[in-house]
Design goal:
InterPro entries: Globin, Globin-like_OT, Globin-like_sf, Globin/Proto. The chain is mainly α. It contains 10 helices and no strands. The N and C termini lie far apart (35 Å).
C-alpha cells in the first residue's frame, strides 16, 4: 500500500491536472507556495511520531471534537443506531474504521506535501460525501481545532508554535479542497 504517488497519479484527473487542451490549468491547491521547506519538515517529523498509532491518536481527536461540538454526534449513525454518548460511538467498530480513514487522509496529505494538488479531486469528492451526510462547512473549523489539540496532546512540548502554524496551513489547504465539494454540486441538489 506504500506507492501513494502511484495511487495519487491514478486518481488525479488529467482534466484537473492540465485544465484540458488549450486551456489554462484548473485552479489547484497551492502545494508549492503553501508551505516552506521547514514547515514541511516540521509536519513530517510530527506526523512520523503520531502516525504509528493512528486509532489511539484519532480517538483523542474525535473525543475533543465531540467535547467541542456535541451536536456532531448524531451525524455518526451505524446500522440506524443513535448513540447516547460520544463514548458509546467512539467504541464501535464502525467508528474506529472511520477514525482509520480520517487518519489515512491526513497521512496522504503529509505524504504529498510537495504536490497536494494531486489530492484535490479526491478531497473535493470527500467534501461532497460529507455534505451528503449533513456535515456543515462550519464544522471543519472545529475539526481543525481538534486536530491541533490531538497533535499538542500527543507531542507535548515538541508541538511548537511553528509546528502549529505549519499544520494549520496544511489543514487549511485540505479544507479548501473539500469545500469545493459543496461548490460543485449541480443546481437543484
Amino acid at each position: 500500500m506504500r506507492p501513494r504517488s502511484e495511487r495519487c497519479q491514478r486518481r488525479a484527473s488529467p482534466r484537473l491536472a492540465s485544465g484540458g487542451e488549450g486551456q489554462a490549468p484548473a485552479p489547484a491547491m497551492e502545494s508549492g507556495l503553501l508551505l516552506s521547506g521547514r514547515q514541511r519538515a516540521l509536519i513530517r517529523e510530527s506526523w512520523q511520531r503520531v502516525s504509528g498509532n493512528p486509532v489511539q491518536h484519532g480517538l483523542v481527536l474525535f473525543t475533543r471534537l465531540f467535547d467541542l461540538d456535541p451536536d456532531l454526534l448524531p451525524l455518526f449513525q451505524y446500522n440506524c443506531k443513535q448513540f447516547a454518548s460520544p463514548q458509546e460511538c467512539l467504541s464501535t467498530p464502525e467508528f474506529l474504521d472511520h477514525i482509520r480513514k480520517v487518519m489515512l487522509v491526513i497521512d496522504a496529505a503529509v505524504s504529498h506535501l510537495e504536490n497536494l494538488s494531486c489530492l484535490e479531486e479526491y478531497l473535493c469528492n470527500l467534501g461532497k460525501k460529507h455534505q451528503a451526510v449533513g456535515v456543515k462547512v462550519e464544522s471543519f473549523s472545529t475539526v481543525g481545532e481538534s486536530l491541533l489539540y490531538m497533535l499538542e496532546k500527543c507531542l507535548g512540548t515538541a508541538f511548537s508554535p511553528d509546528m502549529r502554524e505549519a499544520w494549520s496551513k496544511l489543514y487549511g489547504a485540505v479544507v479548501k479542497a473539500m469545500r469545493r465539494g459543496w461548490e460543485t454540486l449541480p443546481e437543484g441538489d
